[in-house]
Backbone:
């Protein structure tokens, strides 16, 4: 079933006889997808005010369409959403609703925050078929509870979003990447030094064949100045060079996990305390990518591997993005799980929205 | 301001309630002498006051849990309190409640520079969090004007922001984890020193929930390296509209200053008389602060100068020294105090889309004439968070009511313009009964269902945030 507007969406949820599998682009079946497909085709930009850095858009709008429209005004989504379609063998059209529901954030997360940090408003239909709005289209808003954050990363289990509003940022006219030639296990300390500097680093990661990478963005002169200062700061960690023309490509590669494209194995994603990264990487073995200063580890492991067992102990959370075991999310501590279950029961008392999706 | 009628049986059981709290807490952690509890009868919205049954001042998460468990068993409402600087009546007690104050819990538990966080007890004041890491070159970004006094616990509950949140975001964007004690006395760890937790974003929900979902006892906060330098410019204009247009143009040009502050003529006149900051004689002024190295700041200010010039400013003043920078900020920072010197005032807090600034300012001017009360404007222009100050005479009969009416009209105007009732001070009791201006019943119902999950008996700060009518059946049960 495909819905084209909010009224249809509300009706579809109200009339549902059983489980609904909520889909945006419909190309990314993560976790279990039980029930009748409900495709959110509510599309189009409703309001865009470049001078206020705000955008309101139908949840089913293709991400690419949004990115093109705001790029034309020299602006961007601060959280730099990733596109893992190629690595997961499921290319297709990501929608903004899907991106929000999965709280997908790219390398700039260390500086600009996650998708949820840029999300300032949403309208959704809860499991009772009620239309609910929360937040709005202004950057600062503390009127009532922040259900906006709750909807981000809820994987369509609390409500089906019809509309989302973002705070945008001006796109930086210029960028540069400081590249340090060192192995993955040694990267985190260098990245922490970069992120602890006053040079406003907007990306800090590690890729095979390249090394540790540190990005600065902004006005041209300022980028040149900060890159140079970082080059000096990074010198004790290994051979250093500054990449200008190739900078954007490096970050697109890390963001979209290009080094893993076409390779077999299970793909795991670990969000951890950065200082634990080196030891975790050593324990995991396999191929890795690092992002968020070591706080995000991507690991390509032999089929059937349990990254959680291999990596333990760690402070954080692991997700299986593609794996033989069919597990996705890490179980939650009991006290949290109780709250989560109760919240889902409040928003979706009949248990029809993506049952089984979040475990 | 209407408050729910206190439950007679609770008032009658005060001695037993206090005795029970003394059983589970150290003797000096429980106060019930009215001369001592008086200090807790209001927050910074001091027009409304109420003595609580008692006050507990625990020293640890375990003591908070013990106090809440006891109150839960006895059915006693609890009002969490940080430093009591809320401007929305968020920490004002009700007569049948116990105030739970975090002031004694102010330790730094952990500072971790490689992982860029600090973990503190939640009663620690905002400014002293930065104080703990400043000498090593770090800071905690959210900077409410009350930062010398307000506690992190209150900041989390109100999702507070400050002048610099245009660049660094508000509390929710700088919070990594909390220790939360539920009304039932259960201790829950939410989030931690990593970026993405799995599962639903409970942390995002707790932040901004105005002390209604649980008591926050510890917080893991993101800290940032201090920028190399910062420098403000002051730009004077001949009209509010032109100043507003200049703000939009600066943002559109791709420059992201750390702060853009706005003051109108009534506010300029008052602060000049108060602290002689040397502001120009003009209708409106902007203070724009840029950060980075000297060269970077020069580059940014160069662009701002170009943009401002197109709007024919009365004056463009760039700070040439630390002293001049301080003078530029002086008037802005003294604005609230200055207004207080010349008049009683009510400080509003609404947010509007930046593009609506000229319209909303004009309309506020008209309303001010209609009501015969002056309104001065000082606010965070970069993100449209306005603080209209309505001047009135507290000793003149009827003036306060008139002032409240005008305040409500202005906030409705903010909502009509596409904005919201509160940008940083919160709803509390102050805006509780205006909530249905912004929300449909289903919107409020969805929020109240969240409270049902965390606090099924509605004992935590129950008379706040939601219109009393809307929450009545839940509070009664
Ligand atoms: C564990 C994990 C696994 C991922 N797997 C993939 C993957 O296999 N491929 C890939 O490219 N990206 C994946 N991502 C990233 C992300 O899911 C996608 O980039 C993005 O969601 C794709 O958009 P879509 O419109 O195709 O979403 P869909 O595949 O349609 O949906 C993704 C999720 O969002 C929900 N959803 C979609 N629209 C709405 C809405 N309007 N309201 C409420 N909920 C909605 C769906 O129910 C589903 O839970 C994954 C991320 C994580 C953290
Ligand atoms: C002069 C002045 C200037 C101000 N400027 C700003 C500003 O620039 N930006 C801004 O955002 N605010 C500002 N405020 C408002 C106020 O300072 C903030 O709302 C602040 O966050 C309140 O902190 P507090 O510790 O004083 O909280 P309190 O007033 O004690 O409590 C506020 C709310 O938090 C809840 N709470 C407190 N502790 C806990 C806890 N441990 N667990 C759960 N809930 C808790 C209370 O129940 C209450 O609802 C200003 C206030 C004043 C007086």
Residues:
């Amino acid at each position: 079933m495909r819905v084209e507007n909010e009224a249809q969406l509300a009706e579809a949820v109200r009339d549902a006889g059983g489980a609904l599998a909520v889909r945006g682009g419909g190309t990314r079946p993560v976790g279990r997808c039980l029930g009748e497909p409900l495709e959110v085709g509510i599309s189009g930009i409703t309001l865009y005010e470049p001078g206020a850095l705000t955008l309101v858009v139908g949840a089913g709008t293709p991400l690419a369409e949004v990115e093109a429209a705001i790029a034309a005004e020299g602006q961007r989504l601060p959280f730099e959403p990733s596109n893992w379609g190629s690595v997961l063998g499921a290319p297709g059209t990501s929608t903004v609703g899907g991106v929000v529901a999965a709280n997908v954030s790219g390398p700039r997360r260390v500086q600009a925050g996650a998708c949820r940090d840029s999300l300032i408003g949403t309208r959704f239909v809860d499991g009772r078929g009620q239309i609910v709005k929360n937040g709005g289209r202004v950057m600062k808003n503390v009127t009532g509870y922040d259900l906006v954050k709750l909807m981000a990363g809820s994987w369509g289990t609390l409500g089906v979003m019809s509309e989302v509003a973002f705070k945008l940022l001006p796109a930086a006219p210029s960028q540069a990447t400081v590249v340090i030639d060192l192995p993955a296990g040694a990267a985190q300390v260098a990245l922490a030094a970069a992120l602890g500097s006053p040079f406003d680093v907007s990306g800090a990661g590690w890729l095979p064949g390249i090394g540790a990478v540190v990005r600065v963005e902004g006005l041209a002169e300022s980028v040149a100045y900060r890159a140079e200062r970082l080059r000096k700061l990074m010198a004790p960690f290994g051979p250093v060079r500054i990449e200008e023309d190739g900078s954007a490509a490096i970050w697109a590669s890390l963001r979209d996990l290009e080094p893993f494209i076409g390779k077999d194995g299970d793909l795991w994603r670990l969000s951890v305390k950065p200082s634990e990264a080196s030891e975790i990487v050593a324990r995991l073995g396999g191929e890795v990518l690092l992002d968020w200063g070591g706080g995000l580890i991507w690991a390509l492991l032999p089929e059937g591997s349990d990254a959680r067992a291999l990596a333990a102990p760690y402070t954080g959370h692991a997700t299986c993005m593609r794996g033989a075991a069919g597990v996705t999310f890490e179980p939650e501590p009991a006290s949290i799980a109780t709250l989560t279950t109760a919240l889902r029961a409040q928003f979706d008392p009949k248990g029809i929205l993506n049952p089984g999706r979040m475990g | 301001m209407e408050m729910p009628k206190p439950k007679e049986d609770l008032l009658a059981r005060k001695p037993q309630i206090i005795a029970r709290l003394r059983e589970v807490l150290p003797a000096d952690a429980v106060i019930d002498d009215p001369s001592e509890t008086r200090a807790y009868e209001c927050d910074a919205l001091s027009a409304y006051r109420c003595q609580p049954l008692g006050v507990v001042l625990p020293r640890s998460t375990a003591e908070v849990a013990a106090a809440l468990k006891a109150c839960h068993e006895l059915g006693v409402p609890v009002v969490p309190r940080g430093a009591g600087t809320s401007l929305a009546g968020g920490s004002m007690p009700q007569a049948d409640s116990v105030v739970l104050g975090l002031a004694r819990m102010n330790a730094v538990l952990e500072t971790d520079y490689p992982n860029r966080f600090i973990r503190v007890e939640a009663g620690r004041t905002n400014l002293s969090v930065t104080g703990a890491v400043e000498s090593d070159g770090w800071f905690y970004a959210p900077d409410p004007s009350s930062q010398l006094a307000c506690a992190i616990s209150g900041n989390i509950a109100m999702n507070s922001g400050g002048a610099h949140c245009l660049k660094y975001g508000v509390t929710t964007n700088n919070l990594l984890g909390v220790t939360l004690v539920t009304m039932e006395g259960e201790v829950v760890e939410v989030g931690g020193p990593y970026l993405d937790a799995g599962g639903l974003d409970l942390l995002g929900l707790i932040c901004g929930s105005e002390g209604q979902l649980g008591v926050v006892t510890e917080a893991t906060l993101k800290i940032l390296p201090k920028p190399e330098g910062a420098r403000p410019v002051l730009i004077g204009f001949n009209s509010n509209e032109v100043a507003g247009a200049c703000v939009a143009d600066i943002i559109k040009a791709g420059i992201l200053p750390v702060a853009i502050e706005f003051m109108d003529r009534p506010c300029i006149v008052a602060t000049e008389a108060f602290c002689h900051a040397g502001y120009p004689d003009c209708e409106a002024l902007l203070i724009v602060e840029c950060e980075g190295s000297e060269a970077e700041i020069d580059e940014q200010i160069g662009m701002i100068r170009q943009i401002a010039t197109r709007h024919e400013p009365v004056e463009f003043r760039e700070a040439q020294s630390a002293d001049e920078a301080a003078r530029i900020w002086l008037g802005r920072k003294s604005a609230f105090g200055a207004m207080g010197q010349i008049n009683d005032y009510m400080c509003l807090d609404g947010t509007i889309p930046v593009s609506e600034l000229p319209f909303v300012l004009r309309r506020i001017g008209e309303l001010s004439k209609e009501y015969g009360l002056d309104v001065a404007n000082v606010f965070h222009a970069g993100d449209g968070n306005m603080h209209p100050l309505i001047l009135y005479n507290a000793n003149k009969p009827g003036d306060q009511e008139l002032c409240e009416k005008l305040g409500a009209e202005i906030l409705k105007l903010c909502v009509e313009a596409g904005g919201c009732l509160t940008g940083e001070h919160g709803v509390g009791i102050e805006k509780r009964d205006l909530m249905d201006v912004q929300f449909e019943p289903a919107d409020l119902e969805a929020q109240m269902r969240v409270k049902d999950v965390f606090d099924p008996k509605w004992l935590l700060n129950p008379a706040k945030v939601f219109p009393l009518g809307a929450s009545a059946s839940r509070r009664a049960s």
Q: What stands out?
A: The pocket of flavin-adenine dinucleotide (ligand 2) is lined by residues B 43-44, 79-87, 90-91, 102, 122, 144-146, 150-151, 153-155, 157-158, 160-162, 210-211, 215-216, 336, 424-426, 461 (CB under 6 Å). The radius of gyration of chain B is 23 Å. Chain B is about 40% helix and 20% strand.
